[in-house]
Amino acid sequence: MTRYLLHRLPSALLVLFGASVLIFLLLRLVPGDPATILAGNDATPESIAAIRHQLGLDRAIPVQYLSWLGDLFTLDLGRSYILGGEITELVGRGLTNTLVLTASALVLAVVLSLLVSVASVLWPSKWLNTVVAAANTVAVALPTFVVGPLLVLVFAIAIPVLPSGGVPPDGFIARPDIAVQYLLLPAICLALPVAAALTRFLTESLRTELTKQYVLTARSLGVSHREIVTRGALRNALPTMLTVLGIQTGQLLGGAVLVEAAFVWPGIGQLIEQGISRRDYPVVQVLLLLSVAVFVVIQLITDIAHAWLDPRIRIGGRS
């Protein structure tokens, strides 16, 4: 497993390096100048030039990139141009909220998909398959910016049992019962499309496994259908689910931007939106590269878990 991990690391580092170059260059193509925004509308050209010099924006692009890359290696993320404060503190607060939200949504999506998929295979019936297929279609078809307001209208306004948005005032640890109430609606909104995709793939994988020879052999030996599904078919179907889960986790992070906006959740998504709209280059650069890094790490973890479940992948990685 260690050799397989070392085999995968160079490509992950290459992706991060390429992403850093693209992010740095693309942000310089965005219309607008942070120095002009900081100086104000009535600022003189001399004032704008002085601010550009102070921020280092008058240096050559390669010099700016190398300086930024050096700061990243030393974990010196610098200060925000517009939002104010240390970028480390801004990212730390936003990342904590986003990770709590996405982790909750991910757990909810995995649990729902496992329950629905196993139930569909254990108790196959036409009406259950129809209900599951319809629910999956609706969950995938409706975007999060539609589902979010609908959940708020139903569970925060029509039936006021849950908060409409925001984060727990006392944090997530001091009062877990209150934290769950704040988390429930945005986590459901974020988890539904992921749960639908996982359910569809896992259900089909389980049905495919049940047609294989080892299942026929187990049935001939008197093994119950429940044991075949839960102990045999489910384990063999998990690698396919893990691959889809890795892809869906990346989409989960992307969908968190819209969900955070709908539920006023102060996470990375809102921070990226504020940084882009105000041309705050240092904040946006770090956040975008962090998003790519998280996606790369998730894919790496998915590949390792896949290789652990399927030894053929490890053998192929060593050859």
Short description:
This protein is 80% helix and 0% strand. By secondary structure, the chain is mostly helical. Helix 12 packs antiparallel against helix 13 (281-309).
Task: Walk me through this protein's architecture.
The chain is an all-alpha fold and 319 residues long. Helix content is 80%, strand content 0%. The chain contains 14 helices and no strands. Helix 5 (87-122) crosses helix 12 (268-277) and helix 11 packs parallel to helix 12.
Average pLDDT reading: 81
Beta-strand portion reads under 5%
How many β-strand stretches? 0
Distance between the termini: 13 Å
The shape, in one word, is: globular
- What is the tally of helical segments? 14
Residue stretches low in confidence (pLDDT < 50, at least 5 long) are none
Structural class: mainly alpha
Largest sheet: none
Provide the helix percentage.
Answer: over 70%
Element-by-element helix/strand order = HHHHHHHHHHHHHH
How large, in whole angstroms, is the Cα Rg?
24 Å
Membrane topology: Multi-pass membrane protein
Organism: Nocardia lasii
Protein name: ABC transporter permease
Transmembrane segments: 99-123, 135-159, 179-202, 285-309
